[in-house]
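pipeline/complex-builder :: batch 7 item 3
reading input block
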Amino acid sequence: MMLTKVLSDALDSGINQIGQLRILRHPFRLHHIDDVNLDSLELHTNPDDAREIGLYTSGGEYRFTKGELSLRTGWIFEFESVEELRRAIDLFYPASLGLWNATNQGKARVQNLRDKLNRQTGMYRHARNVSDEGAQELVRSLCGPSNKCVKKILWKIDETTALEDSEASRFNGIIGDEETVAAIPMVCQEACNFFVAQARKRAKKEFEASEQ
Amino acid sequence: MEFSPKPDAALLIVGHGSTENPDSSTPYFDHAKEIRDRNVFGEVHCCFWKEEPSMREAVYMIDADEIYVVPDFISEGYFTQEVIPREFGLTGPTTVVNNKTFHYCDPVGIHPSMTSLILQRTDEVAPGVPQEESTLFIVGHGTGLNKNSTKAIKDQVDHIKTLPNCRFFDVIDTYMEEPPFIADWGKLAKTPNAIVVPFFIADGLHSYQDIPMMLGFEKEEGLAASQKEIFRRNPYHLQEKTLYYSAAIGTEPKMADVILDQISTFDAQNDAH
């Protein structure tokens, strides 16, 4: 099924949130979940503006990880079509709709951390040397809402090693109370490249510590 | 080059991206928007090595079963030959992965139509400056690790020199980290004018800061926010010459044409359609 239809059906079923975005219908609108007084917001109609809005935090920091819990407030989009709505969501949270749909259909190609690290080449090939303990600590210090990432982790360390229990490993990809919020969860099918870069640094530290 | 529309196919533009500089991915989105506005593909998306969506995530955004993957990179090298095929699972020019057909095109920077972009850029940055009294420098990064990284620039220089309407006194390939060094531009230029075009996709520290410092008109590290001014202060008077400095060639809107040209070339060479 085309993703635009998937989104349309989801909205018909009552879903009205993804990440920090509130989705409204009739007309299609999109705004930050923390914004309440919609009349005071800056109006946008071009879905491409979503990239610009999602680029920086309110403090001016570059949001290179789009799953960061740091989307700024103060704007609202109004669209003529669900296609435009979908494009804006894909710019705020790239591939989030497609990943959610693939996960629902059992088609997400989840890759465990060891497989992800073992296929790295060049300078990142050293990331594979990180210990399980180091990897578990990285999950706790980089992933989950406390570290500003709002994605539900689908991967494990390897097929037989689950992520240790933590806020990051427990997070369901939905901001707010799952019982009352009708949201599309944000999912993480494999560790992001920022995680890989940090794993490389961690492996280096571990190696240096072992040399002493 | 005439482009035959592909309403049932998707275009996926692959860029490097950055965790530090948001300007680095702007040209890719600009190129995607330009092509999307022309309605020649059913879908147009971007993906990155350092930003989201990653190459492996981007596939989930695509409805079409046929995908043209175009590396928006300036040369062949580690990313185009190793990382991109690995991330998508590509084994040749056309690969079927999970029921989707991927066509893997060459990087945009090595397409012959880049030449016209360079010449257009020189006209824009140095309007009315006589070519006979000018040396054109095309600047790349250069690295001893990969000879391919300089080949694209050398090919452009050779091509421009053979053009019948090229009247530049000289056209020289130069690099940041290997000879001939752009820092030696004053010695290399035998003309009163020098025009410098950075052969990069995006503006970033190299074009904002590193190359200007090597050219001699920036003395110290500046802040990213104000650095686009560097391209608006032409000309610079240095070493008893007049220097015209361009933004990175990839910021040229007509890069969209080069992307489409690269796809047409792929089709012609691989009989994809």
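note: Residues 3-104 of chain A form a domain with the Gyrase A; domain 2 fold (CATH 3.30.1360.190).
queue -> next item
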